[in-house]
Design a protein that fits this description.
By secondary structure, this protein is α+β, with helices and mostly antiparallel strands. It has 15 helices and 10 strands. The radius of gyration is 23 Å and the shape is globular. It starts with a strand and ends in a 14-residue tail after the last helix. This is Mitochondrial-processing peptidase subunit alpha.
């Protein structure tokens, strides 16, 4: 079951509700007295369960033997619409979340933290810029009443999709009629009044966190102290035609860490490997990411290096952004398109991925584009399309996230100036001597 609900919908509520719901999933319900009972029921059909909340979707998923379809749909309907949310469960969730937040700040891999920061910088205080993790100060404020008030507005039939893979469509429809149609949720079915329909407003900006990264090492070999930078620009939503050229561009940029053992097909010919990691041995990481939602998107590059080389690192990344709008080689473009298609096909060999793909597409568009249709669209991307989408993207203000020792970080204005220049260079700093 996929529900159009996530941290982006929490503007009128306490931030962190989705984080709570994710952790509370598959606990006791009207039919099942405890989490153990649910797991035992699933075990009879060789099943496993999982819940994941993202910025715009919450997903309750079960993988089990197809013979147990009726049991599984009944269980999913119960978990999504009839959770007990007992005081004890909420208290345990509070503890789990507090532990997770502490862990997040101590992890040597700052990826989740940077992703939050870049979204907060790009969409200041609105929609996808709202925090996916529950802020520490809210853990004690979220209780059953707050959760019910949120669920009443967002867990409504028009915002839900039941998706299945490896089952007959008619059987699934039959089960949905039996267990979900007209089901009365535990919070009642009053009128929804606080549904947030705001569209993402891209603001651009910078979020900086000064942090001592010298002691994040695990084990005897210390991880070198690094400063992490992420620079992003607004791309487009996954509903727009330009989504495909952006996906190809992201593939073309590629990149990775300096330690990732690369072989053919590992993206060793991508621009961030060839122009950045191979030329500047002191850079530990340069990776391109593309986040896309139904009303906006964000293309960003994450780079990390020693704090003394931050300024140089930022300039290398801003130059790469400017170079995106330049010439695109035919071989390079074909390679990126082939790689994107093969990645799409390989991912769709796994059933959980197909399930998520079907569910998300139907939730957003009421239809599903099949893999061969997407491959055709990828094949049609030309170098002029890449140039067009990049030129449009470079007119926006950048979003910047910086974590670590930021003594040598250029100012936001300087980064913006570099991205508006012809060669991506930062304005020179003249030191005045007395």
């Amino acid at each position: 079951v996929l529900i159009n609900s996530g941290s982006r919908h929490e503007a009128k509520y306490l931030s962190g509700i989705s984080h709570f719901l994710e952790k509370l999933a598959f606990s006791s319900t009207a039919q099942f007295g405890s989490k153990d009972e649910i797991l035992l029921t699933l075990e009879k059909h060789g099943g496993i369960c999982d819940c994941q909340a993202s910025r715009d979707t919450i997903m309750y998923a079960v993988s089990a033997d197809a013979k147990g379809l009726d049991t599984v749909v009944n269980l999913l309907a119960d978990v999504a619409l009839q959770p007990r949310l007992s005081d004890e469960e909420i208290e345990m969730t509070r503890t789990a979340i507090q532990f997770e937040l502490e862990d997040l700040n101590m992890r040597p891999d700052p990826e989740p933290l940077l992703t939050e920061m870049i979204h907060a910088a790009a969409y200041r205080d609105n929609t996808v810029g709202l925090n996916r993790f529950c802020p520490v100060e809210n853990t004690d404020k979220i209780d059953r009443e707050v959760l019910h008030s949120y669920l009443r507005n967002y867990y409504t039939p028009d915002r839900m999709v039941l998706a299945g893979v490896g089952v007959e469509h008619e059987q699934l429809v039959e089960c949905a009629r039996k267990h979900l149609l007209g089901a009365e949720p535990v919070w009642g079915s009053g009128q929804t009044k606080d549904v947030d329909r705001s569209v993402a407003q891209y603001t651009g900006g910078i979020v900086k966190v000064e942090k001592d990264m010298s002691d994040v090492s695990l084990g005897p070999t210390p991880i070198p102290e690094l400063t992490h930078i992420m620079i992003g620009l607004e791309s487009c939503s996954f509903l727009e035609e330009d989504f495909i050229p952006f996906a190809v561009l992201n593939m073309m940029m590629g990149g990775g860490g300096s330690f990732s053992a690369g072989g053919p097909g590992k993206g060793m010919f991508t621009r961030l490997y060839l122009n950045v990691l191979n030329r500047h041995h002191w850079m530990y990481n340069a990776t391109s990411y593309h986040h896309s939602y139904e009303d906006t998107g964000l293309l960003c590059i994450h780079a990390s290096a020693d704090p003394k080389q931050v300024r140089e690192m930022v300039e290398i990344i801003t130059r790469e952004f400017i170079l995106m709008a330049g010439a695109v080689g035919e071989v390079e473009l074909e390679r990126a398109k082939t790689q994107l298609k093969s990645m799409l096909m390989m991912n769709l060999e796994s059933r959980p991925v197909i399930f998520e793909d079907v569910g998300r597409q139907v939730l957003a568009t009421n239809t599903r584009k099949l893999p061969h249709e997407l491959c055709t669209l990828i094949s049609q991307v030309k170098s002029t399309d890449i140039k067009r989408v990049v030129t449009k993207m470079l007119h926006k203000k950048p979003a910047v996230a910086a974590l670590g020792d930021l003594t040598d970080l250029p100012t936001y204005e300087h980064i913006q100036a570099a991205l508006s220049s012809k060669d991506g260079r930062l304005p020179r700093m003249y030191r005045l001597f007395r």
